[in-house]
Amino acid sequence: xxxxxxxxxxxxxxxxxxxxxxxxxxxxxxxxxxxxxxxxxxxxxxxxxxxxxxxxxxxxxxxxxxxxxxxxxxxxxxxxxxxxxxxxxxxxxxxxxxxxxxxxxxxxxxxxxxxxxxxxxxxxxxxxxxxxxxxxxxxxxxxxxxxxxxxxxxxxxxxxxxxxxxxxxxxxxxxxxxxxxxxxxxxxxxxxxxxxxxxxxxxxxxxxxxxxxxxxxxxxxxxxxxxxxxxxxxxxxxxxxxxxxxxxxxxxxxxxxxxxxxxxxxxxxxxxxxxxxxxxxxxxxxxxxxxxxxxxxxxxxxxxxxxxxxxxxxxxxxxxxxxxxxxxxxxxxxxxxxxxxxxxxxxxxxxxxxxxxxxxxxxxxxxxxxxxxxxxxxxxx
Length: 381
What we know:
The protein contains nine helices and 22 strands. With 381 residues, it is of the alpha+beta class. The protein starts with 11 loop residues before the first strand and ends with a helix.
């Protein structure tokens, strides 16, 4: 791997955020010949990317533009997987979804929608599900389940470490423990980044990709992005023997395999039990963690005892309307935003397209529906 950019540097770019969207954009910019400094408040993957279930999918019902972006995102992961099929932290072994017994109609509607959009989708009854996806307890499925054979998962901390190593090898810089960052503006144009640690980084362009903090950072510039980021938790188990390879998305627990023989588990039914302090630190009763582990155990053949190795709490980045936010701020030229709930699925493709937009100066057509100004435009109408 080359230790210098592929082409002479044509732009200096400062990226705020050490999660998947920030690191992906940074490495794609460096590949395109930019000189990049990535600035993160604490450490890489210390925020939402470090506690993401990171299910790679476009299952379910969403806008056509969002579906197209997610499918392109899966394609980039498959390209990476094809070159590295033995990676422990990137797998494509399918995904399974089912709803409550009294919501069978919604499962059937979801399946029809996926088929209509040419998304790999098989309807499987509970008796056959253990043969399709080994390791699932058949009695945990109340009716029909949807099996999406093309779905996968990624461990974002491992991916971020992989991309960060490439960024540095190509001449990019990573600044950790920088504290909170703000965009510098001169004559209504972004000119760099300042941090609470007292550092300044001059730049021709700035990327704001700091997860649930993104609306606040651009809010300082007078730009409104509606924020719907909820509290969330990811639990990682101690290693255990299990046969689960697919991602399981069920009414009471979502779980996937994780490197080292562990499982990653989350859901949202316990969100009202999470307490967020004034400093942003969160806590949750131990009984809620144990209940989530018990719910996940019931999904697995033999109902093995699951023990938590660690759990992480914080805000899950979700724009107010649920759709991603990508692109340059009209009000502050030179400042670009990357803010999305599906950071895992779109992480590679979003970084690629945003880097292309920055380097070429041309808005990418796949971001047409996801421009930041849509929130202020709605307010005016």
